[in-house]
């Protein structure tokens, strides 16, 4: 995770976007929080691509800058995102 973030920054990324749950595993809150901290250390924002409820919940809890898609977010997830200053983009189907 660290290597990928730093390589993208090195090559000129102005935003880091991670895929939280559109693969065989879902990043944990601790994994995402680590990526948020590393991205913020470089002065950039971290967006999280989330398709599942669990992925969006983990991203909101970890405090990403934005959740992209977030179709399965519940009202509780949206409240957590709001509390952690996370913006959610896309259609929401609670």
What does this structure look like?
The protein is of the alpha/beta class and 94 residues long. It is built from 4 helices and 4 strands. The longest helix is centred in the middle third of the chain and has 13 residues, at 29-41.
**Which secondary-structure class do the elements indicate?**
alpha/beta
- Give the count of helical stretches: 4
Q: What is the succession of H and E elements?
A: HEHEHEHE
> What distance lies between the first and last C-alpha atoms, to the nearest angstrom?
30 Å
* Spatial sequence of strands, sheet with the most strands: 1-2-3-4
Largest beta sheet, briefly?
Answer: 4 strands, parallel
What is the count of β-strands? 4
Mean pLDDT: 91
Gross morphology: globular
Strand content: 15-25%
Helix content: 40-55%
Radius of gyration, in Å, reads 12 Å
Low-confidence stretches: none
């Amino acid at each position: 995770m660290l290597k990928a973030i730093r390589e993208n920054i090195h090559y000129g990324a102005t935003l880091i976007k991670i895929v939280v749950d559109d693969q065989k595993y879902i990043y944990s809150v601790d994994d995402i929080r680590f990526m948020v901290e590393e991205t913020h250390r470089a002065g950039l924002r971290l967006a999280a691509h989330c398709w599942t409820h669990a992925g969006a919940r983990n991203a909101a809890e970890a405090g990403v800058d934005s959740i992209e898609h977030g179709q399965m977010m519940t009202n509780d997830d949206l409240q957590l995102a709001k509390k952690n200053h996370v913006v959610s983009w896309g259609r929401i189907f609670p």
